[in-house]
Amino acid sequence: MLRPQGHSSAFTPAEGVSQRYADEAPPLPVPNGWFCLGFSAELAPGKVATRQLAGQDVVLFRTRGGVLRASRAYCPHLGAHIGAGGRVEGEEIVCSFHGFGFGPDGACTRTGYGTRPPKASLSLLPVREENGLIMVWHHHAGDPPIWEPRAAHAGDFSPVARDTTACAGHPQEVLENIVDFGHLTTLHAPRVSSARVPKSFTEDGVRGHVTLEMAVCPPGWKKPMPTTYEFTLHGLGGTEVHISMPAGFTVRIWFMATPVTPWRIQLRSGIEARVPAPGLLPAPLGRMLATAGTYAVSQFVLWYHNRVFLFSERNGDVPVWNTKEYLPGPRLAEGDGPITRYRRWAGQFYPPSTEPVVLGQDPLHDLGSAERGD
């Protein structure tokens, strides 16, 4: 079985603190929803890890039996950080300060000196593992999950190639790129030479869907490669992308934006390619070559995705996110795409007290010319 490969991005973006919001509150709060705090392969049985979500530390741990849990960081005994020196013993996580142990349900099971444990519990957070991703639920009022992070496409997904980096920005801004059709052939040119939209942004409750057909020019290719991208947005925490390429190649990408501190996010990419087995070879050899091809193509797609679409100083999204300002009422033009509709859909993920996040005006044409294939 292939082991997923992961590392910090090899294409480091420029300094990622947006000076626009360095000394003031950012214009958008943290949305409610599921957010990716890591990959399943990063948390083996017995391991403890600390991640950030919405300005708070979250401790992830996996018991020796494989049970995954997510907890707020501080021990209810005397406030020590569970992730700083905490360890897994059997099915418990043990605080390093006084040796208090806590079971998978969060309840204190023992002290470090053999006395009766107090009636105390860790503050567990809803956590799920879906397709090799660790997803933790955030809600501004602490309400339980109102939907589950289910994949749109059937079949197991195991991110053979994965990557994590940080930059300035907000989850809503990241996913807005999907419906910002106008930037595809401007910012990402010449690698994207054309784009059309057979299926514009459609709403399905907490999910949204977009289909794009683009002509993409990978390095070394003499002519553009027709590629179909099917996006499924899962709240504002990320998107699942199903990519169809010539010769039967398919790629699935999970691209997740996790808010860690005000106007700063972690971006995680998990990629798996599916390479068809050569039909003229014996079945075992064909499967072996397809498996090797899956690994090679997955790594290439990760490299290409990062190098061309994310971190390029001239053509990448991250340098834009690092420095841009959020405009609640942008002056949109024909060809921009259904940004208004997307933002209205995104409004459902914020606390009721939030200032309206819809646009201050409607664009002249909410479905731009790129969407009509003009």
Outline:
The protein is α+β, with helices and mostly antiparallel strands.
Alpha-carbon distance between the two ends:
46 Å
Portion in strands: 25-35%
In round numbers, the mean pLDDT is 86
Please bin the fraction of helical residues: 10-25%
The DSSP helix count reads: 5
Low-confidence segments, ≥5 residues, pLDDT <50?
Answer: 1-13, 357-374
The rough form would be described as globular
Description of the molecule:
This protein is of the alpha+beta class and 374 residues long. Helix content is 15%, strand content 33%. It is built from 5 helices and 19 strands. The protein has an 8-stranded mixed sheet with strand order 1-13-19-18-17-16-15-14. A hairpin with a 2-residue loop joins β11 (127-130) and β12 (133-138). It is globular.
Task: Outline the secondary-structure elements.
Blueprint: E1 5-8, E2 33-39, E3 48-53, E4 56-62, E5 68-72, E6 87-89, E7 92-94, E8 101-102, E9 108-110, E10 124-125, E11 127-130, E12 133-138, E13 161-168, H1 171-179, E14 192-204, E15 207-216, E16 225-234, E17 238-244, E18 250-261, E19 264-274, H2 283-310, H3 317-323, H4 339-346, H5 369-372
Parallel strand pairs: 1-13
Antiparallel strand pairs: 2-12, 3-4, 4-5, 5-10, 6-7, 7-8, 8-9, 11-12, 13-19, 14-15, 15-16, 16-17, 17-18, 18-19
Key traits:
374 residues; alpha+beta; 4-stranded antiparallel beta sheet; 5 helices; 19 strands; 15% helix; 33% strand; globular; disordered C terminus
